[in-house]
Amino acid sequence: MTPTGAQLCYTDAYLRTLDARVASIETADGTNPLLILDQTVFYPGGGGQPADRGIILRTADGRSWTVRAARKIGGEIVHELEPDQGDPPAVGDQVRIDLDWARRLALMRTHTALHALCGVVWRDYGALVTGGNMEPGSGRMDFEFERMSGDLVDAIEASVNAELAVGRDVRVNVLPRDEAFAIPDLIRTKVNLLPEGIEEIRTIEIVGLDLQADGGTHVANTSEVGGIRVTGYESKGRLNKRIRIELVEAIP
Ligand SMILES: [Zn+2]
User: CB within 8 A of 203, min separation 6: which ones?
Assistant: First the structure.
């Protein structure tokens, strides 16, 4: 089913403000108001990337509300307002969305860095991803990577930084399911997380390094990431190993 609201974060990750109209609102007792807009730039969270935060401002009177998070409910991106902000806007109100852009851009850089990490670990060691998570500026990835060691982690950090510094373009594509599944190694996670029956697959390509099915937001070129530093690694069992990274402004 096509959602009411257009979901622009998937097609233009750099869109940070947008005029929209309130399409529906839910204000059940004891919960924060939930808004659906006719179009939005909020990322609803998923794939280890947290949901966006931001402000919506009513065009008519300049009143604004803080959006504490967004999430997907039944295919719609739903905006959750901070509690105790008085009456929410009404259906039909024209609003202007203003994302917390510093936070979102940090998440885009972090997410792209994690793809570069994933690409290097796959290319050089053939290790599959078993999980991952991020905050603005830092993140972790878990790999099925039995022989990981401190020396390998140092080599991985250097390789990731070298790849980021090359300035590789990052491309978003939406492919029909059959075409997407014909790409070898597209599904890099240990378990294929794509739901049955999905018609189109969105892919993120770091040209020359990494190609994955993915729903998140990323920067357009690896040079925007800066560099990374590995802040830790740990064993989560015989096979599963975790690598933690943080962004650094300049490549060390
Ligand atoms: Zn991603």
Answer: 172, 173, 174, 175, 180, 183, 186, 211, 212, 213, 214
| Ramachandran region, residue 18 (left: φ > 0; alpha: ψ -120 to 50; beta: rest) | beta
Model confidence at 194, in pLDDT bands (50, 70, 90)? Answer: low
> Which residues have beta carbons under 5 A from ligand 1 (an ion)?
111, 214, 216
Q: For position 51, what pLDDT does the model report? A: 98
Cα-to-centroid distance, 46 and ligand 1 (Å): 10
Q: How far is the CA of 123 from the centre of ligand 1 (A)?
A: 17
d(CA 60, CA 77): 24
How remote is the CA of residue 118 from the centroid of ligand 1, in Å?
10
What local confidence, expressed as pLDDT, does residue 196 receive? Answer: 66
143 beta partners? 129, 241
